[in-house]
Design a protein that fits this description.
Layout: H1 9-17, H2 30-41, H3 47-60, E1 65-67, E2 83-86, H4 88-99, E3 102-104, E4 109-111, H5 118-122, H6 125-131, H7 139-157, H8 161-173, H9 186-196, H10 213-222, H11 229-237, E5 240-244, E6 272-276, H12 301-306, E7 313-316, E8 332-335, H13 352-356, E9 367-373, H14 377-387, E10 391-401, E11 421-429, E12 443-447, H15 457-466, E13 472-475, E14 486-490, E15 496-497, H16 501-517
Parallel strand pairs: 7-14, 8-9, 8-13, 10-12, 13-14
Antiparallel strand pairs: 1-2, 3-4, 5-6, 7-15, 9-11, 10-11
Helix pairs in contact: 1-4
The structure holds S-adenosyl-L-homocysteine.
């Protein structure tokens, strides 16, 4: 027999009223529940019919009754499964449907508003668990409910197939940079330095920092017979920082706080180091070019397999005067503005309002922007992003490491505290569904290099977010920032190099008109 929705009304009342069906003496046994329900409702069922009724009830109540086995209609009472769990919210939803009302499931109150989502419901676990008490004080129900809630959370938090595929893709396409440990045995570094570095015959190199690594390694190898096995193995496997002893070095002063970024390296009396990388650079190339998992993701897998990435492009210009529309649109932008931070910098800076009034809205219809900011400029940066039409989605930081791979404690910036990190605001424009999310984290730990130079890791992150083939722009970039797939603009770049025909054409046109006009 096929039941109608309204036929289940009395069973809903029955379950809500009898809060001890799973408990003694019923223990969820169907052959007891059946007769109890018949007595309650005045309906008549055979055992077999009652099982059919339960099967259909579960269909309309979203599987609110759980049994310890599959429900199969049978006349053999002993073989019927036992009811082990009642999903109260499911029963209440059905009750509301029967009454033609909308239920606010977190309070069990009927409302005329739109229904509260299951998500809202499970986000208020305390309230809902308490509300179970009126059904059954039995802890098995509460526990089983908790269990169910956990499963729900797990489901909600489970990465989507797309995320998993993107992670898999990222794993295959990102070269694994070997991680070398640093040797902390001073005696090792001192010994290696005396054998390979602190020699008179290197005077023609000027600074000892300039001695090529392989020359030092060759010298150490010549002394192999007098080096202990332990030191030799360590020299092969770990990074060593060899103390550089110059005539002017005063060992009592200790380490130079700027180390390899010291501006007065040639005369500095503090101790400096030469970085000797491990001899066994087992650069295993983990990217298997044949293992492209092309067919699955949105992104750029397919193009990655069969199309070359655009070679690096750059334009030397003053960004304040370059007409942005000639550049076209970009999926991602990195901008490291020369903020006027009242510090002496080896390049010119821009005023806040000059930066804010850049026509950034021309560069993206939808996509991401990463804006480097420091101290005071964090606030200006936020304002700028909002003004340019972005929502600020994230903030990343770069934790700066010094030459010895330790956190910088005496940075050159910071008025009150020494700055050991830099901030990057991440803005989003439009709703770019093609962005590969949840691959990277918002913290990058990486050594410092030249003044203002940012770690390459950020380019890799952007490329994973928007794909290697999409158009990407760096504003205020320098020669060392140029990269395949990127257009770099800035006033310290060497000349112009463009390969995209449209961009080239528009740029030439602009140049012609600007020279004719001037
Ligand atoms: N992110 C870069 C450093 C950028 S420093 C890196 O990783 O190396 C800021 C750069 O912006 C400097 O090269 C500076 O010369 C340049 N710059 C300053 N004002 C500019 C302007 N009006 N137009 C173009 N470039 C400018």
């Amino acid at each position: 027999m096929i039941y109608d929705l309204k036929d289940f009304g009395s069973f809903v009342q029955f379950i809500l009223k009898h809060n001890d069906l799973l408990d003694t003496p019923v223990y969820g046994q169907i052959w007891i529940i059946g007769p109890l329900f018949q007595e309650y409702s005045g309906l008549k069922f055979t055992n077999e019919e009652f099982v059919w009724f339960l099967i259909q009830f579960n269909m309309v109540s979203g599987g609110s009754l759980k049994f310890d086995n599959v429900l199969i209609p049978s006349t053999n009472l002993q073989s019927l499964p036992k009811l082990v769990w009642i999903n109260l919210p499911g029963i209440l939803i059905l009750q509301s449907r029967l009454q033609g009302k909308v239920l606010d499931i977190s309070t069990h109150r009927e409302t005329t508003n739109s229904p509260t989502s299951v998500l809202d419901f499970i986000q208020q676990p305390d309230k809902t668990i308490k509300s179970y008490d009126f059904l059954s004080p039995d802890t098995t129900i509460v526990n089983s409910f908790k269990f169910d809630k956990d499963i729900l959370f797990q489901l909600l938090n489970r990465p989507t197939s797309r995320t998993q595929l993107n992670k898999d893709k990222a794993k295959r396409h990102i070269p694994e940079i070997p991680f070398y440990h640093v040797c902390n045995e001073q005696a090792h570094s001192q010994l290696l330095a005396s054998m390979g570095l602190n020699k008179k015959e290197y005077s023609h190199f000027g600074s000892k920092h300039n001695i090529p690594e392989d020359i030092i390694i060759q010298r150490i190898l010549k002394c192999k017979s007098i080096i202990s096995n332990e030191v030799f193995r360590c020299f092969q496997e770990k990074i060593h920082f060899l103390p550089i002893i110059n005539n002017h070095t005063d060992l009592n002063l200790g380490d130079c706080s700027y180390l390899d970024t010291c501006h007065k390296m040639k005369t500095c009396r503090y101790l400096h180091y030469y970085t000797l990388n491990p001899m066994q650079k087992n650069q295993k190339d983990t990217i298997d070019s044949k293992s492209n998992n092309s067919e699955y993701t949105l992104g750029d897998c397919f193009s990655q397999a069969c199309r070359e990435v655009q070679p690096p492009q750059w334009i030397n210009c003053d960004v304040r005067y370059l007409p942005f529309p000639i550049l076209g649109k970009f999926a991602a932008i990195i901008s490291d503005p020369a903020w006027d931070i009242h510090m002496s910098l080896p390049y010119g800076t821009c005023k806040d309002d000059e930066l804010l009034s850049l026509p950034m809205h021309e560069l993206q219809d939808e996509g991401i922007i990463m804006l480097w900011v420091t101290g005071r400029s964090i606030e200006v940066g936020r304002r700028a992003l909002l003004k340019w039409g972005y929502k600020i989605y994230d903030e990343m930081i770069w934790i700066k490491l010094n030459q010895l791979r330790r956190t910088i404690v005496t940075g050159r910036t910071g008025h009150w505290l020494n700055h050991s990190k830099e901030h990057l605001l991440v803005g989003l424009k439009g709703d770019p569904i093609w962005i590969n999310k949840k691959i990277d984290t918002d913290v990058v730990v990486s050594p410092t290099r030249e003044t203002s130079r940012k770690p390459d890791e950020f380019y890799d992150i952007v490329e994973r977010l928007v794909g290697k083939h999409s158009r990407k722009l760096e504003i205020f970039g320098r020669d060392h920032n140029t990269r395949p797939g990127w257009l770099t603009i800035g006033n310290q770049l060497q000349g112009v190099s463009l390969t995209e025909p449209e961009l080239k054409h528009k740029y030439e046109l602009y140049k012609q008109t600007s020279t004719t006009n001037s």
